[in-house]
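Provenance and format

Records in this collection were gathered into a single text stream. Each protein contributes a sequence line and a token line. The two records reproduced below are adjacent in the stream.
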Amino acid sequence: MLSSAGRRAFAALARPTLRSDVAFAFRPSPAALRRLLSALAVLEQRDGKLNAGSLSAVTAAKQLGGSVHGFIAGSNIKAVAEEAAKIEGVEKIIAVDNPAYDKGLPENYAPLLVENIKKGGYTHVVAGTTAFGKNVMPRVAALLDSQQISDITAVQDDKTFVRPIYAGNAIATVESTDAVKVITVRGTAFPAAAVGSGSAAVEEGVDPKADSPTEWVSEDLAKSDRPDLATASRVVSGGRGLKSKEDFDRIMLPLADALGAAVGASRAAVDSGYADNSLQVGQTGKVVAPQLYVAVGISGAIQHLAGMKDSKVIAAINKDAEAPIFQVADVGLVGDLFEKVPELTEKLKKAQA
């Protein structure tokens, strides 16, 4: 029979000992990680119609690997929400019906988004690099105390993204450790998500009805029956070489109609008053990547190349054989644009007759 001292010694030996030099790590499986990820794709609407340009955000959100929900707000939103529910790969549409959000004013739209992000517990918020996205998303990031990841062109994993910097002359790979990652995507880098076969549920979102210090007064939009510049498969752009607005319209518009193309312009042409600023292609304008891009009277400054160099085929017409645009062009024609472009337009019309 053990003495009391012996029993204490035996108990000490039997008691489990915690060792400070042993580390225990729990690593969730990739499938478990995917279940933890959830992305909110911010969809845009205008006058009761879904903006196709924002569908690239859905494609990028799907590449993150988790569940994807869509968000949309505005007046009489039911029809647009039902259309958005048909987007492939979206599990749920969060809709807020309030005319205060029709114009996407960041002062009240950002608090609206933040409330719905917190309610849904989303790990990623994705929007297009559009005028709307550039207005709203930085404010959303600030309210969430996150650093925005802007204008991405690729998703490597749920926390690592690729984006161009220095007007596209360098490519940065960015890794974020923020709890909520706020992302804008370059529309030309991600194809628009298909609408048609989806069957997402539509759920009413939270509306904080935040006061806005600003109000929408009016807008003056340039309307055209031609394809939308941001999504067109063919684009013809004019530059400073066209010399005047009258010549710009006389030369470029018939060429665009003959090709069934959208019309663009360089910053120099816009600053000179030849074209509306909504037509500007470049670093401070629209970024396009059509199947065919025709540059007429454009020298090829870095600022302009940043907005169109991802085009599949680039054709340039310029009288200066040393113009930088010829360094990126697949097809080049050296000559007087006032002679060559009308000649090209006539040949296109005859080919279509």
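Adjacent record:
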Amino acid sequence: MLGQDSHDALLFGEEEDNLRLKKSKIRHPLVSFFHLFFRTSAILVYLLCDIFSSSFIACMVTIILLLSCDFWTVKNLSGRLLVGLRWWNQVDEDGKSHWVFESKKTHSVDTNSTAESRIFWLGLIVCPILWIIFVFSTIFSFKFKWLAVVIMGLVLQWANLYGYVRCKVGGKSNLRNMATNYFGLRILKEAMKKTEEP
């Protein structure tokens, strides 16, 4: 009886190994795929549309549809399932608009995996940076017909990034105050280092 129970029990340290394996495993592969699929597809269609089609309208509509699918997927599915964050706009009885930013309060073992979190934040941060580059390249190359498309890409991707950063740092806190406090602390630390040096 005692030997049988000892075989079923985990050895010291195996709990951490099992926890690490669960945390690094992708639990929502379909959501992770579509989180990146619509974003990268819109970018690829923008970059390669001259090769695939000579019709500006067809390329523009395809890019805007992909961006819209991406916005909906990230806002309604991948943020909630991959990192436990969500945001939305709510209108009260007086007709006033309120933005709500939420993060999952539970910190159980099965909440989020680190691999899914990395996929989410990498896609969420890199793609708006690419759309910023596209805005400047469109202006400097005088391709003004594409300016509306790249601005639409930037706005939709930036909106999700802003919403999820607000969810992550806390919906009630002001991002500008956080940045000011961070840089203030950095300056104070640098000043303290210089006063300590002989």
